[in-house]
Amino acid sequence: MKTELCSFCLKSGILCQKCSAKVKSGEISELDLKIARLLLSLEGKYPSLQNVTFHKAVSFGKTLAVIVGHGDVPRLLGYGGKIIKTLGEETRKSVRVLEYGVDDRKFLEDLFMPLNILTINTIWLPDGTTETRVILKRKRGNQLPFDLKALKEVATKVRKMSLRVEFAD
User: Fold this and answer.
1) Superfamily per CATH, domain 1-101
2) What does pTM read for this prediction?
3) Is residue 151 within 8 Å of 96, Cβ to Cβ?
4) For residue 132, which of 5, 140, 152, 157 sits 20 to 30 Å off, Cα-Cα?
5) 75: left (phi over 0), alpha (psi -120 to 50) or beta
6) In sequence order, what are the residues at sequence separation of 6 or more whose Cβ sits closer than 8 angstroms to the Cβ of residue 67?
7) pLDDT digits (tens, 9 = 90+) for 101-159
């Protein structure tokens, strides 16, 4: 697995000077360390993780967003979802896998999976800020498969994107 931290630091649990400086500066959080160590421990059981690039982990409420490199989402979702299930059990959170460096539409599609996005609009507010309006197609039943407030917060933390979510039947 590729990450900002050296693999020796992740395996040993003791950070070198370079990695320690990244943690102190806030470039890497304690959550990033925890998730990177967990993914590294799963690498032996699931060999496809060796090619995954881990960028960041963001948590809000009961939702954990794992940001991985371009094209790495299927590798993390493989093995019948066992990797994601293990991450969820270890952190006691619902896990979302997002791709790093993609356009806004792809980011939002990954974020709101399994619901379909009907349209995405940018709303220009009088104070000069923008809001992204997302209209989702609601599936049968009123229960959402995710925490909407947590996903809005994840979008704010990861992409600095303010979301307004609406539903269409």
Assistant:
1) K homology (KH) domain (3.30.300.20)
2) 0.80
3) yes
4) 140
5) alpha
6) 54, 55, 56, 57, 58, 98, 99, 100, 158
7) 888 888 888 888 888 889 999 999 899 888 999 998 877 666 777 778 888 888 888 88
